[in-house]
Amino acid sequence: MAYYIDIYTNIAKKHFNRIVYIDLFAGCGINEIEVNNRKEVVLGSAMLAKKVPRNGKEFDKLILVEVDQENAKMLEEILPDALVIPGDCNKASVLREIIDEVYRVDKTHFLALMDPEGLELKWRTVETLLQHAGDSIINYMCAGVGRNWGNWYSERTQETIRKSLENTITEYFGCEDWKNCPPPDQGGSAENLFELYLNRVRNFKEKAIPIKVKGLKGFHYHLILAVRKTGGAQGWIDAIYRARARIEKTTEQDIEKLLDVFQGRQSQLF
Known about the structure:
The protein is of the alpha/beta class. Helix content is 43%, strand content 21%.
């Protein structure tokens, strides 16, 4: 995330009157994670958007959406210049407020982060932002998709819950094509569903670059970087592919070293 923020702000600032950062699941500004039975506190995505850009390359506006009222209040306190929208990013009124702020100034471009914990992000919300002039980073949570999808197929799931799961998954993908993927007992997995999701993103953006991010204890998720291909040299897209190669080779040991560097327990990564 920090890597792309640096690339994006450095380039976009040269070509647009105004650049905006949008975070649909902004949290409270910091994250707490557990590594080897110890808790680590790291900057959240909203704080990275504030701190990472170089001098003179900063976002002109941060738009932070957060459904939890306490988290929204914290964001307002630590990022007073940001537009904090306390509400559900899937609501039409929230999306309208975002789009109105983006187009308040001519020739504005945005970077949007869509980072749900599970299937909270509805496809119509994704589609709305993909249709506008901006880049998007979308987090596809394999575990959450796979769990809901597996429960839908399970014979132990009650019919009322099964119907609710069906509606949730359909709203997440924006279609019922997920039902055409092989079921779990025939070798299907959340990875098959990811290809469906990725291809739907590609209907709106010429470049939709998937990045597999590995976590601890076998956990992983996919990021989709969705951008419009521009004229001329595409050096910045090449930089994304180089970053993807490094990210996908990252091991659990590398993650622990990165945290040590961040927390000051180690002076450098290598």
